[in-house]
Design a protein that fits this description.
With 359 residues, this protein is of the alpha/beta class. The chain has 10 helices and 13 strands. Helix 5 links the parallel strand 5 and strand 6. The longest helix has 24 residues. The protein is globular, with a radius of gyration of 21 Å.
Amino acid sequence: MSKYFSSRFASLEPYVPGEQPQDMSYIKLNTNESPFDPPKEVVPVIREAARSIRLYSDPESNELRQAIADYYGLEPENVMATNGSDEALNYAFMAFCDEEHPIVFPEITYGFYPVIAKLNNIPYETISLREDYTIDVREYEGINKNICIANPNAPTGIALSLEEVEQIVRTNPDNIIIIDEAYVDFGARSAVPLLYRYDNLLITQTFSKSRSLAGGRLGFILGAKDLIADMNTLRNASNPYNINRMTAKAGIVTLRENTYFKNSCQAIQFNRRYTSRALEALGFEILPSSANFLFIRSERIGGEELYLRLKEKGVLIRHFSDPKISDWNRVTIGTKVQMDKFLAKVEEIFVEQDEEGAK
């Protein structure tokens, strides 16, 4: 830290992204990226858009917002396009949370939420999960505070039902409820239908997971027109050209290629079930996932040790240092070939353990 760094941020602990080591070729099962390329139509559209890269992109992302609105049966004024869903979350926190309006989220969830709150000097509270790592909806009913919930939750992968989400929204009518649906396409129900009935609901989604555009950095937030207008005030005051030309066109194409999108999601769900059964046969405990990852632990090996030994063998998974979940690891679901290699390496580690124990 330099002597010039503002004291406001001296205690800020930034979010730590999944590692991207370059020392060897890894099977990457640590950052929840899609194992599938985007639709083949994306690349030529990006190339064509790049021809005009000397010009600024549309500051309102009108064509993209229209495509998103059409897909969800909304109006463009209900949509703000963002540079990944993290930007959407940041604007939502900035616009609606302050000293008088703190925000609440689960104690174990996406690690970016407390970072955003601290960055913007927003008071926040956390609510513990149940012993089975599920969210207790009753803890959020009528608390009269802003709320942010990832559904499915991360890193557990466990989803709330649409009825449970509605109960939270309905019982807090004077507060903003943010539902982060980064992983919703892999088996959970979206809260988008609730937007027609509740004006205090915001929903964030991303193109990074199910739509194979993690490198494009594209997300969006849906909500009542006046809420979107509030956030656009902040966006235009800080980053008006937030979506580049190539990414905007890529996003539009992926929304049109819906059959490809659904087939990719179905393949990941199949591979998730396949991997879950195989891990259970190896004695792992696995939380019920509606996301493109599994949260796993084993009595045979600690979470950090499994992560390190797999890394040595060229397989990356995600380990968290938080003592509450340090026995667990998050494993992104890839292709069946990738999952077979992962499973083979896990079995190999167990064999090595047995051999080491016999010495």
